[in-house]
Amino acid sequence: METNSKKYNKWIVILSVAIPVVVAILFGVKLDVELPVFLPPIYATINALTAVVLIAAVLSVKRGNIKAHEKLMKLAIAFSAIFLVLYVAYHMTSNSTKFEGEGVIAYVYYAILISHILLSIAVIPFVLITFVRGITNNIELHKKIARITFPLWLYVAVSGVVVYVMISPYY
């Protein structure tokens, strides 16, 4: 078990650093490719589905259905990974859309956007640690960190949808 933990810990650190760094690098890459679909509503929908799946996973574990909880959490991670791939693909093939709202609404938009971006980076190690503690059957520590991970991850998923809704008139 100790060797597995160390192996997982290395991967948690590597992924927690590599994912934001690779995303930042890829944002600087512009491909002259036109995608066959407009991705923002698709990846916003995936964020919404992630939020729904996270809530369903918490409800299932509270009802004692551990198998459903595990499957739903794997689905939430898969949705998050798909979101990330589509999000990066969009930004590599399209110019960024500028928010044109003014006044209080602009402050609200940027507050949500900045908190969404910062927490989407911060939540990565929390998700990975929580997942590893679950799959290695370290249930007490899993529960302890899940109480932090769940609201962070849920906020990231929901705020991503809110950011999309607020900027969608400007696409």
Layout of helices and strands:
Elements: H1 2-27, H2 39-62, H3 66-93, H4 104-135, H5 139-167
Describe this structure in words.
This is DUF420 domain-containing protein. InterPro entries: DUF420. This protein is an all-alpha fold. It has helices at residues 2-27, 39-62, 66-93, 104-135, 139-167. The protein has a single domain, classed as Cytochrome c oxidase, subunit III, four-helix bundle (Four Helix Bundle (Hemerythrin (Met), subunit A), Up-down Bundle), CATH 1.20.120. Helix 1 (2-27) packs antiparallel against helix 4 (104-135) and helix 2 (39-62) packs antiparallel against helix 3 (66-93). It starts with a helix and ends with a helix. 21% of the residues are buried.
- Pattern of helices and strands: HHHHH
Query: What is the average per-residue confidence, as pLDDT, rounded to a whole number?
Result: 93
Q: What is the CATH superfamily?
A: Cytochrome c oxidase, subunit III, four-helix bundle
Helix content estimate: over 70%
**Architecture (CATH level 2) name:** Up-down Bundle
Radius of gyration in whole Å, from Cα? 17 Å
Strand content: under 5%
What count of domains describes the coordinates?
Answer: 1
Oligomer classification: single chain
Largest sheet: none
Under CATH, the topology is which? Four Helix Bundle (Hemerythrin (Met), subunit A)
Shape: globular
